[in-house]
Amino acid sequence: MGNPAGLVKAAPWKDPGVRPYVEIEHLTKSFGDFKAVDDVSLRIYKGEIFCLLGPSGCGKTTLLRMLGGFETPTSGRILIDGEDMTGVPPYERPVNMMFQSYALFPHMTVEQNVAFGLKQDRVPKVEIAERVAAMLALVKLDGLARRKPHQLSGGQRQRVALARALVKRPKLLLLDEPLGALDKKLREHTQFELISLQDQLGVTFVVVTHDQEEAMTLAGRIGVMNHGEIVQAGTPTEIYEFPTSRYVADFIGSVNIFEGKLVEDEPEYVRIRSDELGGTIYVSHGISAAPEATVWAAVRPEKIFMSTSAPASADNAAHGVVQDIAYLGDLSIYRVKLDSGKVVRVTRPNTTRHAESITWDQPVFLSWDATSPVVLTT
Amino acid sequence: MNARRSFFVLTALAFGFAFLYLPILSMVVFSFNASKLVTVWDAANSPTLKWYRALLDNEEILGAAWISLKVGVINACGAVILGTLAGFGLARFRRFRGRFTLSAMTTAPLVMPEVITGLSLLLLFVALEQAIGWPAGRGVTTMTIAHMTFSMAYVTVVVQSRLSSFDISLEEAAMDLGAPPVKVFFVITLPIIFPAILAGWLLAFTLSWDDLVISSFTSGPASSTLPMVVFSKVRLGVSPEINVLATLTITVVTTMIVGASLWMARLEKAASGAPET
Q1: pLDDT per residue over A268-293, tens digit each?
Q2: CATH number, domain with residue A16
Q3: Minimum mean pLDDT among A354-358, B117-121, B136-140: which range?
Q4: Mean pLDDT of the residues in chain B
Q5: Does A15 share its domain with A164?
Q6: Which residues of chain A have a CB within 8 Å of the CB of B172?
């Protein structure tokens, strides 16, 4: 799954000359002693899809609600398009939100729901009718304008909610778990629809989700949150391939983490002695850490090679026994118990229909490239 | 369900219905009785509409019915406004100074014996008249205020329970789309909880319509309500006119309830976000 077109080409967050569209400065929100959002600073650029990703209770929804104006920050401020939004009530913000429950007004038709926001702005009737019709056509709901929300399917309701939030042409659209209520097939389809819609309209999206796959598909950039803080922000590739902490490495996808001591620390390479692995890990780039420091090497399951014959190098290698196999069709997951006792997760794509069989209780050798491990110091 | 209806179930059903409706049915039948004695069926001249005609000429009963109607309607409207406000406050604001007091005071009339409510209100009205000269004497005004104090409690409970199942993000969505809070209340919240408010109105009206105890305490010389008149007449011996009055009341009430349920079912269907399953 890739990034939405147009966002890969331009990376405004790398260009210091570009002014961020949304600036969140040292934002904190406390409920009593509990800090739901803790000193978050974030810059979001025009036309981006930015995903806030984290487990439930990590503060991502609180952060979104502060952008919408439903919660008042305890300290810090939010600027949207250069304007300070602190103290501006939700009904005066150039921001619209799509709620997790969709929050469609049950006593109004689809058309009235979508027109509601424009009516509040006293847009002329003719223009309301035109814009509502155009928006309904865009989300492919033209035939259902006179239906009530309870006469719609889940996917249709999701699109009404989206149309209602987009019809006001907000500067910023907030989406709270936008696809959470849809089933898997429909969700995948809707993800791509959402991306192409965003591409057409150019509205900046901030999406909250706990589903990492959804975040990876939708987002130009992801902000991983934990305990009210943004732990790491970057493109899906950066987050997945270059996590900066064990938390991020572990939260996004699955990963094998080996604890070890730094034994050789050169500018071009490092070597880590790991008892958990029962050997040494060789990484072909330098890191900044004290010698003899405890570090963690993270290796993704798909980057581990598994074979029945011993690898050539003594580094980045281990021996173990296959403990469990999960066959998922497109790939298989192997759980290999190393001689040290640690269980390592290895995935292999099933590229042929009659793959050579590695089976339960078989001794195997694991190895990986020197570029594969990520060395983490926290 | 294809369980056979047993003899026992059918008998129980028959007895149940007989227990509930036979007295009412006998009263309806006796309203067409020609005899002046309520308990004696005059087979020769019945059925007749004689007592219906007599009722229409009875100024006292018609006047009382008019007062009852007036008090009932004003009371129901007032109780709905106050009850909705109280229910809204209690459902929405989980913590504020005096929340417990408000909650206790609004629901107190539900459990308070009517005699006590009636007596305390009478004492209040008398004291007020002496202190500030209002309300001048007892009558429709004092009765309406008294009815409102207790029927408001019922409206509060109905509205509060409806609001506790209300999805607050509907209001947030409306606000997000540019509607200020007061407008949100009238355009979103009120239409959605309208069935509960309607139910509260009907409840308040009914409570007022058949209240006797509190009305007796707070009414004045020229302001007898229908239950008061009926009660005083019954003490002097039941007149066949009462049967007629009761039959008419039952007819009106039944029609109203059936109509209101149909209307409310339609409103609920329109207002519910539930998917069709």
Answers
A1: 888 999 988 888 999 888 777 777 78
A2: 3.40.50.300
A3: A354-358
A4: 88
A5: yes
A6: 68, 70, 90, 97, 99, 103
Instruction: Find the residue in A nearest to B173 (Cα).
Output: A103
Is there a domain that residue A252 lies in? no
A269 and A155 assigned to the same domain:
no
Rounded Cα distance, A341 and B78, in Å: 76
* Contact: B271, A100; criterion CB under 8 Å: no
Which one of B166, B172, B177, B187 makes the best mutation probe of the A interface by having the most chain A beta carbons within 10 Å? B177
- Could you tell me if residue A341 is inside a domain? yes
- Whether A120 sits inside 8 A of B179 (CB atoms) is yes
Residues A212 and A316 in one domain: no
- From residue A125, alpha-carbon distances to A120, A129, A168 in Å are 12, 6, 14
Contact A104 B183 (CB under 8 A): no
Contact A181/A69 with Cβ under 8 angstroms? no
Chain B interface residues facing chain A, Cβ-Cβ under 8 Å? 167, 169-170, 172-180, 183, 188, 191-192, 269-276
Q: Please say if the pLDDT value at position B74 is more than 90.
A: yes
Domains and CATH numbers, chain B: 58-238 (1.10.3720.10)
Provide mean pLDDT across the span A102-113: 94
Domain that holds residue A154: 3-246
Distances, alpha carbon B94 to alpha carbons A66, A73, B98, B188, in Å: 21, 21, 11, 21
> In chain B, what residues touch A103 (CB-CB under 8 Å)?
167, 169-170, 172-173
Entry pTM: 0.81
Q: Which residues contact B137 (CB under 8 A, 6 or more apart)?
A: B129, B220
Q: Please indicate, yes or no, whether residues A276 and A215 belong to a single structural domain of this protein.
A: no
Instruction: Report ipTM for this prediction.
Output: 0.83
Report the C-alpha gap between B269 and A150 in whole angstroms: 9
From A246, A281, A302, the end of a domain falls on A246
| Total domains present in chain A | 2
Residue in B closest to A121 by C-alpha: B178
